[in-house]
Amino acid sequence: SHGTGTQGGRVAEDGYVREVYEASYRRLVAQAYAVVADRVEAEDAVQEAFARAVAAGDRFRRLDNPEAWLRTVALNVLRRRWRRASMFRALSPRLATASDVPGISEDHVAVVAALRSLPFQQRETLALFYLGDLSVQEIAATLGVADGTVKSRLTRGRAALAAVLNPTLEADRG
Fold first, then answer.
1. How far is CA 38 from CA 43, 71, 164, 165, in A?
2. CA–CA separation, 125 vs 162, rounded Å?
3. What would the pLDDT profile of 81-121 be if each residue is shown by its tens digit?
4. Are the C-beta atoms of residues 159 and 118 closer than 8 Å to each other?
5. Contacts of residue 53, Cβ cutoff 8 Å, sequence gap at least 6
6. CA–CA distance, 137 with 139 (Å, rounded to integer)
7. Which of 85, 167, 96, 161 has its CA nearest to residue 130?
8. I need a surface site. Which of 120, 130, 144, 153 has the fewest CB within 10 A?
9. Residue 123: exposure state from Cβ atoms within 10 A (0-12, 13-18, ≥19)
10. In whole angstroms, what is the distance from residue 75 CA to residue 42 CA?
11. 33-92 pLDDT per residue, tens
12. 129-134 long-range CB contacts below 8 Å, 24 or more apart?
């Protein structure tokens, strides 16, 4: 190391970040999209996470699970923006269509649309569990909450989601 302050550049040049990018980018965008239901915002947050990975240089290279680190950074970006923009979002709701997002099915889009109606914490938890395929323990670590908190959010979120996705189910059963 020459101490020239080009650590981040070196990591990018030698292809490590690019390898992680190629392995993880689409999956991370799909997870972020599940949380915000907006393709542009999802891609933007994931790109921001990769920019921070480059800036972190050797610290990023030493991570055991670079994708988990990137997911946490991207979620934090989304949360910060969510808090800042929630008033405006209420004024101009946008819903991405399936064709906007490569590799995402119509079912996924229906679920994402339903997720939008839930409180942010439930939505984030359900998105990571169902669309991110993370375990309860991984979600707890990612969000910085207890396992029990994740479990109760999943339970409440599932019930709310079922009501949104199948509003007539209960009535039909009568």
1. 9, 16, 19, 19
2. 15
3. 776 655 454 544 444 444 455 555 566 667 777 777 888 88
4. no
5. 11, 17, 20, 60, 66, 69, 70, 73
6. 5
7. 161
8. 144
9. buried
10. 9
11. 888 888 888 999 999 999 999 888 889 999 999 999 999 999 888 888 776 655 454 544
12. 129/154, 130/34, 131/30, 131/31, 131/34, 132/27, 132/31, 132/34, 132/71
Per-residue pLDDT of 125-136, as tens digits, reads 888 887 777 889
For residues 113 and 3, give the distance between their C-alpha atoms in angstroms, rounded to a whole number.
Answer: 49
In terms of Cβ atoms closer than 10 Å to its own Cβ (0-12, 13-18, 19+), residue 5 is exposed
- Tell me the C-alpha to C-alpha distance, in Å, between residue 48 and each of 51, 54, 70, 72, 87: 5, 10, 9, 12, 23
The owner of tokens 């050797």 is 58
**CA-atom Rg of the chain in angstroms:** 18
The owner of tokens 């988990």 is 68
HSE-CB for 12 with a 13 A CA cutoff: 11
Report yes or no on whether pTM surpasses 0.85. no
Give the integer Cα–Cα distance in Å for 122 and 152.
Answer: 9
